[in-house]
Specification:
Elements lengths: L6 E10 L2 E11 L4 E5 L6 H9 L6 E6 L2 E2 L5 H7 L1 E3 L12 H11 L5 H6 L5 H17 L15 H14 L4 E5 L7 H16 L3 E5 L3 H7 L2 E6 L2 E6 L1 H5 L2 H8 L1 H6 L13
Parallel strand pairs: 3-8, 3-9, 6-7, 7-8
Antiparallel strand pairs: 1-2, 1-4, 4-5, 9-10
Helix pairs in contact: 3-5, 3-6, 5-6
The protein binds adenosine-5'-triphosphate (ATP) and magnesium ion.
Protein backbone atom coordinates (compact mmCIF):
# COMPACT_ATOMS: atom_id res chain seq x y z
CA UNK A 1 0.00 0.00 0.00
CA UNK A 2 1.27 3.48 -0.84
CA UNK A 3 -0.52 5.36 1.92
CA UNK A 4 1.21 6.08 5.22
CA UNK A 5 0.09 3.74 7.99
CA UNK A 6 -2.19 5.20 10.66
CA UNK A 7 -0.49 2.97 13.20
CA UNK A 8 2.89 1.28 13.12
CA UNK A 9 3.90 -1.39 15.62
CA UNK A 10 7.53 -2.44 15.60
CA UNK A 11 9.30 -5.22 17.47
CA UNK A 12 6.63 -5.56 20.12
CA UNK A 13 7.65 -7.93 22.90
CA UNK A 14 5.67 -8.67 26.04
CA UNK A 15 6.30 -11.44 28.57
CA UNK A 16 4.37 -12.48 31.65
CA UNK A 17 6.69 -14.52 33.85
CA UNK A 18 7.92 -17.24 31.57
CA UNK A 19 5.21 -16.76 28.96
CA UNK A 20 6.16 -14.69 25.91
CA UNK A 21 2.70 -13.43 25.05
CA UNK A 22 3.86 -11.26 22.14
CA UNK A 23 7.16 -12.12 20.53
CA UNK A 24 8.73 -9.40 18.35
CA UNK A 25 5.65 -8.54 16.32
CA UNK A 26 5.61 -5.89 13.57
CA UNK A 27 2.51 -4.65 11.78
CA UNK A 28 0.92 -1.59 10.20
CA UNK A 29 -2.69 -0.45 10.18
CA UNK A 30 -3.69 1.68 7.20
CA UNK A 31 -6.28 4.44 7.34
CA UNK A 32 -9.80 3.31 6.52
CA UNK A 33 -9.13 -0.41 6.51
CA UNK A 34 -10.69 -3.23 8.49
CA UNK A 35 -7.75 -5.25 9.77
CA UNK A 36 -8.50 -8.51 11.57
CA UNK A 37 -6.22 -10.26 14.03
CA UNK A 38 -6.89 -13.96 14.38
CA UNK A 39 -5.24 -16.94 16.03
CA UNK A 40 -5.89 -19.71 18.54
CA UNK A 41 -6.66 -19.04 22.21
CA UNK A 42 -3.62 -17.65 23.97
CA UNK A 43 -1.95 -16.56 20.72
CA UNK A 44 -1.41 -13.03 22.05
CA UNK A 45 -4.23 -11.12 20.33
CA UNK A 46 -5.61 -9.36 23.40
CA UNK A 47 -2.06 -8.59 24.54
CA UNK A 48 -1.49 -6.82 21.20
CA UNK A 49 -4.61 -4.74 21.92
CA UNK A 50 -3.32 -4.01 25.42
CA UNK A 51 -0.02 -2.80 23.98
CA UNK A 52 -1.63 -0.66 21.29
CA UNK A 53 -4.17 0.92 23.68
CA UNK A 54 -1.69 1.66 26.46
CA UNK A 55 -3.22 -0.87 28.87
CA UNK A 56 0.17 -2.63 29.00
CA UNK A 57 3.64 -1.37 28.16
CA UNK A 58 5.79 -3.55 25.96
CA UNK A 59 9.10 -4.91 27.26
CA UNK A 60 10.53 -3.92 23.90
CA UNK A 61 9.35 -2.29 20.72
CA UNK A 62 7.26 0.72 19.88
CA UNK A 63 3.85 1.89 18.75
CA UNK A 64 3.45 4.96 16.57
CA UNK A 65 -0.04 6.35 16.06
CA UNK A 66 -0.48 9.04 13.44
CA UNK A 67 3.26 9.62 13.51
CA UNK A 68 3.38 10.04 17.29
CA UNK A 69 5.11 7.67 19.71
CA UNK A 70 2.35 6.35 21.98
CA UNK A 71 4.30 3.40 23.41
CA UNK A 72 4.45 4.76 26.95
CA UNK A 73 1.22 6.74 27.11
CA UNK A 74 -1.58 5.84 29.49
CA UNK A 75 -4.83 4.37 28.10
CA UNK A 76 -6.70 7.64 28.65
CA UNK A 77 -4.01 9.55 26.74
CA UNK A 78 -4.09 7.04 23.88
CA UNK A 79 -7.90 7.24 23.82
CA UNK A 80 -7.75 11.04 23.72
CA UNK A 81 -5.62 10.73 20.57
CA UNK A 82 -8.35 8.61 18.98
CA UNK A 83 -7.47 4.97 19.73
CA UNK A 84 -10.50 3.51 21.51
CA UNK A 85 -11.10 -0.12 22.40
CA UNK A 86 -13.69 -2.54 23.63
CA UNK A 87 -12.75 -5.35 26.00
CA UNK A 88 -13.13 -9.07 25.52
CA UNK A 89 -15.45 -9.14 28.54
CA UNK A 90 -18.50 -6.93 28.34
CA UNK A 91 -18.02 -3.60 30.14
CA UNK A 92 -21.32 -2.01 31.08
CA UNK A 93 -21.93 0.50 33.85
CA UNK A 94 -24.43 -0.96 36.28
CA UNK A 95 -27.22 1.25 37.62
CA UNK A 96 -27.23 3.37 34.48
CA UNK A 97 -29.65 3.39 31.59
CA UNK A 98 -28.50 2.50 28.09
CA UNK A 99 -28.46 6.21 27.25
CA UNK A 100 -26.41 7.14 30.32
CA UNK A 101 -23.89 4.45 29.42
CA UNK A 102 -23.42 6.04 26.01
CA UNK A 103 -23.24 9.52 27.55
CA UNK A 104 -20.15 8.35 29.46
CA UNK A 105 -18.51 7.93 26.07
CA UNK A 106 -19.56 11.46 25.07
CA UNK A 107 -17.99 12.79 28.28
CA UNK A 108 -14.74 11.00 27.60
CA UNK A 109 -14.47 12.30 24.07
CA UNK A 110 -11.23 14.21 23.69
CA UNK A 111 -10.47 14.11 27.40
CA UNK A 112 -6.94 13.25 28.42
CA UNK A 113 -7.90 11.52 31.63
CA UNK A 114 -9.53 11.80 34.97
CA UNK A 115 -7.97 15.12 35.84
CA UNK A 116 -9.30 16.82 32.74
CA UNK A 117 -12.70 15.27 33.34
CA UNK A 118 -12.65 16.24 37.01
CA UNK A 119 -11.68 19.83 36.22
CA UNK A 120 -14.50 20.19 33.74
CA UNK A 121 -16.82 22.92 34.89
CA UNK A 122 -20.38 21.83 35.57
CA UNK A 123 -22.09 21.53 32.22
CA UNK A 124 -24.81 23.94 31.27
CA UNK A 125 -28.27 22.60 30.54
CA UNK A 126 -27.60 23.21 26.85
CA UNK A 127 -24.43 21.11 26.98
CA UNK A 128 -26.25 18.34 28.78
CA UNK A 129 -29.00 18.35 26.17
CA UNK A 130 -26.43 18.31 23.39
CA UNK A 131 -24.72 15.31 24.96
CA UNK A 132 -28.01 13.45 25.37
CA UNK A 133 -28.82 14.07 21.72
CA UNK A 134 -25.39 12.88 20.67
CA UNK A 135 -25.71 9.73 22.79
CA UNK A 136 -29.14 9.11 21.33
CA UNK A 137 -27.72 9.25 17.80
CA UNK A 138 -25.29 6.47 18.64
CA UNK A 139 -28.06 4.39 20.21
CA UNK A 140 -30.11 4.88 17.05
CA UNK A 141 -27.14 3.77 14.99
CA UNK A 142 -27.03 0.46 16.87
CA UNK A 143 -30.81 0.10 16.75
CA UNK A 144 -31.49 0.69 20.46
CA UNK A 145 -33.30 4.04 20.51
CA UNK A 146 -36.41 2.39 21.98
CA UNK A 147 -34.39 0.94 24.86
CA UNK A 148 -32.60 4.21 25.72
CA UNK A 149 -34.21 4.67 29.12
CA UNK A 150 -34.08 1.08 30.29
CA UNK A 151 -31.44 -0.02 32.79
CA UNK A 152 -28.59 -1.26 30.59
CA UNK A 153 -28.19 -4.49 32.58
CA UNK A 154 -31.87 -5.36 32.02
CA UNK A 155 -31.21 -5.74 28.29
CA UNK A 156 -30.37 -9.08 26.66
CA UNK A 157 -26.64 -9.76 26.32
CA UNK A 158 -26.49 -8.92 22.62
CA UNK A 159 -28.10 -5.53 23.23
CA UNK A 160 -25.71 -4.80 26.10
CA UNK A 161 -22.88 -5.45 23.66
CA UNK A 162 -24.46 -2.89 21.33
CA UNK A 163 -24.71 -0.34 24.15
CA UNK A 164 -21.01 -0.84 24.83
CA UNK A 165 -20.38 -0.45 21.13
CA UNK A 166 -22.38 2.80 20.99
CA UNK A 167 -20.47 4.12 24.02
CA UNK A 168 -17.18 3.35 22.30
CA UNK A 169 -18.29 5.19 19.16
CA UNK A 170 -19.35 8.17 21.27
CA UNK A 171 -15.69 8.65 22.22
CA UNK A 172 -15.21 9.36 18.48
CA UNK A 173 -12.41 6.97 17.70
CA UNK A 174 -10.12 7.36 14.74
CA UNK A 175 -8.96 3.79 15.29
CA UNK A 176 -11.44 1.39 16.87
CA UNK A 177 -10.14 -1.81 18.49
CA UNK A 178 -12.79 -4.50 18.89
CA UNK A 179 -11.88 -7.55 20.98
CA UNK A 180 -14.20 -10.41 20.01
CA UNK A 181 -17.29 -8.26 19.50
CA UNK A 182 -19.34 -11.19 18.19
CA UNK A 183 -18.66 -13.44 21.20
CA UNK A 184 -21.97 -14.53 22.71
CA UNK A 185 -24.05 -12.98 19.94
CA UNK A 186 -26.70 -14.92 18.04
CA UNK A 187 -26.16 -15.44 14.31
CA UNK A 188 -28.66 -12.66 13.54
CA UNK A 189 -26.95 -10.29 15.97
CA UNK A 190 -23.54 -11.15 14.51
CA UNK A 191 -24.84 -10.31 11.02
CA UNK A 192 -26.14 -7.00 12.35
CA UNK A 193 -22.71 -6.35 13.86
CA UNK A 194 -21.15 -7.14 10.51
CA UNK A 195 -23.26 -4.44 8.82
CA UNK A 196 -22.54 -2.01 11.65
CA UNK A 197 -18.77 -2.41 11.38
CA UNK A 198 -19.00 -1.78 7.64
CA UNK A 199 -21.06 1.38 8.26
CA UNK A 200 -18.53 2.59 10.81
CA UNK A 201 -15.75 2.14 8.33
CA UNK A 202 -17.75 4.09 5.75
CA UNK A 203 -17.69 6.97 8.24
CA UNK A 204 -13.91 6.95 8.00
CA UNK A 205 -13.13 5.02 11.18
CA UNK A 206 -10.32 2.48 10.90
CA UNK A 207 -11.13 -0.87 12.51
CA UNK A 208 -8.77 -3.37 14.14
CA UNK A 209 -10.73 -6.49 14.97
CA UNK A 210 -9.95 -9.59 17.03
CA UNK A 211 -12.56 -12.23 16.29
CA UNK A 212 -13.01 -15.98 16.34
CA UNK A 213 -16.13 -15.86 14.14
CA UNK A 214 -14.58 -16.71 10.78
CA UNK A 215 -17.72 -15.85 8.80
CA UNK A 216 -17.52 -12.33 10.16
CA UNK A 217 -13.76 -12.01 9.68
CA UNK A 218 -13.59 -13.40 6.15
CA UNK A 219 -16.63 -11.37 5.11
CA UNK A 220 -15.50 -7.93 6.24
CA UNK A 221 -11.73 -7.81 6.73
CA UNK A 222 -9.57 -6.15 4.08
CA UNK A 223 -6.49 -7.78 5.56
CA UNK A 224 -5.83 -10.37 8.22
CA UNK A 225 -2.89 -10.93 10.55
CA UNK A 226 -2.55 -14.44 11.97
CA UNK A 227 -0.78 -15.08 15.26
CA UNK A 228 0.31 -18.26 16.99
CA UNK A 229 2.29 -18.57 20.23
CA UNK A 230 2.87 -14.82 20.35
CA UNK A 231 4.31 -14.56 16.84
CA UNK A 232 2.86 -13.32 13.57
CA UNK A 233 2.73 -16.33 11.26
CA UNK A 234 0.92 -14.82 8.29
CA UNK A 235 -0.55 -11.62 6.91
CA UNK A 236 -2.60 -10.96 3.81
CA UNK A 237 -6.04 -10.72 2.27
CA UNK A 238 -8.69 -13.20 3.45
CA UNK A 239 -8.06 -15.29 0.33
CA UNK A 240 -4.31 -15.30 0.86
CA UNK A 241 -4.60 -16.22 4.52
CA UNK A 242 -7.10 -18.99 3.83
CA UNK A 243 -4.74 -20.62 1.37
CA UNK A 244 -1.61 -20.17 3.52
CA UNK A 245 -0.24 -23.59 4.48
CA UNK A 246 1.14 -22.40 7.83
CA UNK A 247 -2.25 -20.96 8.77
CA UNK A 248 -4.13 -24.04 7.70
CA UNK A 249 -1.82 -26.22 9.74
CA UNK A 250 -1.63 -23.99 12.77
CA UNK A 251 -5.11 -22.73 13.16
CA UNK A 252 -7.80 -23.40 10.68
CA UNK A 253 -7.34 -27.13 10.69
CA UNK A 254 -8.83 -29.91 8.68
CA UNK A 255 -12.09 -28.12 8.00
CA UNK A 256 -10.56 -25.79 5.45
CA UNK A 257 -7.93 -28.21 4.28
CA UNK A 258 -10.69 -30.47 2.99
CA UNK A 259 -12.49 -27.64 1.26
CA UNK A 260 -9.45 -25.96 -0.22
CA UNK A 261 -6.34 -27.33 -1.76
CA UNK A 262 -3.32 -25.32 -0.64
CA UNK A 263 -2.67 -23.15 -3.69
CA UNK A 264 0.42 -21.63 -5.24
CA UNK A 265 -0.51 -18.29 -3.72
CA UNK A 266 0.86 -19.22 -0.33
CA UNK A 267 2.31 -16.11 1.19
CA UNK A 268 5.66 -16.20 2.82
CA UNK A 269 5.60 -14.58 6.21
CA UNK A 270 7.64 -11.43 6.31
CA UNK A 271 10.44 -11.45 8.85
CA UNK A 272 9.42 -14.87 10.12
N1 LIG B 1 -2.01 -10.15 32.51
C1 LIG B 1 -1.48 -11.34 32.26
N2 LIG B 1 -0.77 -12.02 33.18
C2 LIG B 1 -0.23 -13.22 32.91
N3 LIG B 1 -0.31 -13.84 31.72
C3 LIG B 1 -1.00 -13.22 30.75
C4 LIG B 1 -1.62 -11.94 30.97
N4 LIG B 1 -2.24 -11.57 29.81
C5 LIG B 1 -2.01 -12.57 28.94
N5 LIG B 1 -1.28 -13.55 29.48
C6 LIG B 1 -0.83 -14.78 28.81
O1 LIG B 1 -0.30 -14.39 27.56
C7 LIG B 1 -0.70 -15.31 26.53
C8 LIG B 1 -1.48 -14.55 25.47
O2 LIG B 1 -2.73 -14.15 26.02
P1 LIG B 1 -3.80 -13.28 25.24
O3 LIG B 1 -4.87 -12.97 26.20
O4 LIG B 1 -3.12 -12.15 24.58
O5 LIG B 1 -4.30 -14.32 24.15
P2 LIG B 1 -5.50 -14.21 23.09
O6 LIG B 1 -4.94 -14.50 21.76
O7 LIG B 1 -6.24 -12.95 23.28
O8 LIG B 1 -6.41 -15.47 23.53
P3 LIG B 1 -8.03 -15.65 23.51
O9 LIG B 1 -8.39 -16.00 22.10
O10 LIG B 1 -8.25 -16.81 24.44
O11 LIG B 1 -8.63 -14.39 24.00
C9 LIG B 1 -1.49 -16.39 27.23
O12 LIG B 1 -0.62 -17.45 27.52
C10 LIG B 1 -1.98 -15.72 28.50
O13 LIG B 1 -2.18 -16.65 29.52
MG1 LIG C 1 -8.15 -12.47 23.87
Amino acid sequence: MDTEPLLRARGLLKSFGGVVAVNLVDFDIFPGEILALIGPNGAGKTTIFNLVSGTHRPDRGMVLFDGRDTTHLRPSQVAALGVVRTFQNLQIFQNMTALENVMVGCHLQGKAGFLATALRLPGTAAEETHMRNEAMKYLELVGLADQAHLPATSLPFGQQRMVEFARTLAVRPQLLLLDEPAAGLTRVEAEELDRLICRIREQGITVFLVEHDMNLVMGIADRIIVMQYGAKIAEGTPAEVQSNAAVIQAYLGAEWQEERQPSDSIMEVENA
